[in-house]
Amino acid sequence: RILITGSLGQLGTGLAKALRQKYGLDNVIMSDILKPTKDIFESGPYVYADILDFKNLQELIVSHRIDWVIHFSALLSAVGEFNIPLAMRVNIEGLHNVLELSKQYKLKLFVPSTIGAFGPTSPRNPTPDLTIQRPQTIYGVSKVHAELMGEYYRHKFGLDFRCLRFPGIISSDTNPGGGTTDYAVEIFHEALRVGHYKCYLRPDTRLPMMYIEDCLKSILKILEVPNEQLKLGTYNVTAMSFTPEELAEAIRKHIPNFEIEYEPDSRQTIADTWPMVFDDSNARNHWGWSHDNNLDDLVSIMLNALQPIYAKNE
Ligand code: VAH
């Protein structure tokens, strides 16, 4: 059975749905430290799990017969900089607990990494899988640590560890929390609500991005890839790269009067150290990764999905 930690974040709900369709409702257990909404409770198994409580997690893994862990619990890039001690505990100590239990019980472990695992001294356009990684956020440092520790446990103990570095993920049904790429989600809500958006990044800030369905597709695929095809312990995956002004232009094809203004904040400093374009050719060549949604698909999907919410308010 599959346990998703931090499942109430941006990726968890969609992944639980996709995994339940493929492996059966009762074989996918969502978990987090928050109380979920009624429909999450009613959508399938949900349990309380604090990844900082080793015994709690151990008991969960044994009593629920877990054999795969999808480890989402983490503080993202922007929020991590405002609570470094907590980010260190959750992103590093929490990872250690999950790694140790995965080794002890021979679990398959998926941990997401990120474009944020690279820094200003990494090549930025494009950024390959294997290159210098000196990130300048606690989030990025903790994710490089997760990649290295997971690959070490794979090498030393044969742990079935799989890791994908994601670009900014864009979704309509779940709100991201505390990321640097979140402008690319907020912009759709504001475009429909008031026709105007104040962007916290400069107009020319190019970042790799992906629609959530492609993100979930990559996770389901990497979980099933035979070990011998995984020549790398960690793979970049991406779908597109765009700037706020390019995204605004694409939105104007649907909402002609949409206006955007720019007021860079501390997240600009983070974005300026990140990859501009991700090279994911290894994932495409080694295990057949491919994305389905490009920028125009993303914009029409997001606007169509969110339109009913804001149409009601008219
Ligand atoms: C963040 N959305 O902005 C997350 C992600 C690629 C960025 O890790 O922190």
From TrEMBL:
<dbReference type="GO" id="GO:0006567">
    <property type="term" value="P:L-threonine catabolic process"/>
</dbReference>
<comment type="similarity">
    <text>Belongs to the NAD(P)-dependent epimerase/dehydratase family.</text>
</comment>
<dbReference type="InterPro" id="IPR001509">
    <property type="entry name" value="Epimerase_deHydtase"/>
</dbReference>
<comment type="function">
    <text>Catalyzes the NAD(+)-dependent oxidation of L-threonine to 2-amino-3-ketobutyrate, mediating L-threonine catabolism.</text>
</comment>
<dbReference type="GO" id="GO:0008743">
    <property type="term" value="F:L-threonine 3-dehydrogenase activity"/>
</dbReference>
<comment type="pathway">
    <text>Amino-acid degradation; L-threonine degradation via oxydo-reductase pathway; glycine from L-threonine: step 1/2.</text>
</comment>
<feature type="domain" description="NAD-dependent epimerase/dehydratase">
    <location>
        <begin position="2"/>
        <end position="237"/>
    </location>
</feature>
<dbReference type="InterPro" id="IPR051225">
    <property type="entry name" value="NAD(P)_epim/dehydratase"/>
</dbReference>
<dbReference type="InterPro" id="IPR036291">
    <property type="entry name" value="NAD(P)-bd_dom_sf"/>
</dbReference>
<protein>
    <recommendedName>
        <fullName>L-threonine 3-dehydrogenase, mitochondrial</fullName>
        <ecNumber>1.1.1.103</ecNumber>
    </recommendedName>
</protein>
<dbReference type="Pfam" id="PF01370">
    <property type="entry name" value="Epimerase"/>
</dbReference>
